[in-house]
Design goal:
25% of the residues lie in helices and 36% in strands. With 135 residues, the chain is α+β, with helices and mostly antiparallel strands. A five-stranded antiparallel sheet has the order 1-3-4-5-2, with helices on one face.
Length: 135
């Protein structure tokens, strides 16, 4: 069996929580101190419930899913897009649904769709990811 065949009907739900450690680590790594992410009063004055978490934290969750949750580690991320639908806040619990959309055997490429939902089952982000599969 070719490794690409492992992805034919792949679907998985993966749970995440935006913890203070994740928030602080991303802030330190990115040096992004925009007040929307760091100042509760500023964020509330803009109509949000609290500080809005960095959108790219979700990209890190996508990286984890591709690197650690697929049926083989023999993959490389080639392309990714994300649409942010709703804000994410500190301590939000998210579920990422990742499922195969297309398999291109001739070039060992798999395209997934994904969506992140919050505890209220609202979609906070969605998109597509393309990977290459090493044989």
């Amino acid at each position: 069996m070719a490794k690409i065949d492992l992805f034919a009907n792949f679907e998985k739900n993966i749970s995440f929580e935006v913890s203070e450690d994740i928030y602080n680590s991303f802030q330190k790594c990115s040096s992004d101190l925009n007040p929307l992410h760091t100042d509760e009063v500023f964020a509330k004055n803009k109509g949000f419930q609290n500080k809005v978490m960095y959108g790219n934290i979700l990209n890190a969750f996508i990286s984890y899913a591709i690197g650690m949750e697929l049926p083989t580690p023999d993959v490389i991320l080639q392309l990714q897009d994300i649409q942010y639908k709703k804000p994410v806040y500190l301590h939000d619990k998210l579920v990422m649904n990742l499922k195969t959309e297309e398999v291109h055997e001739a070039v060992n490429v798999v395209i997934f769709t994904y969506k992140f939902t919050n505890a209220k089952n609202k979609v906070v982000a969605k998109g597509r990811v393309q990977i290459g599969v090493f044989e």
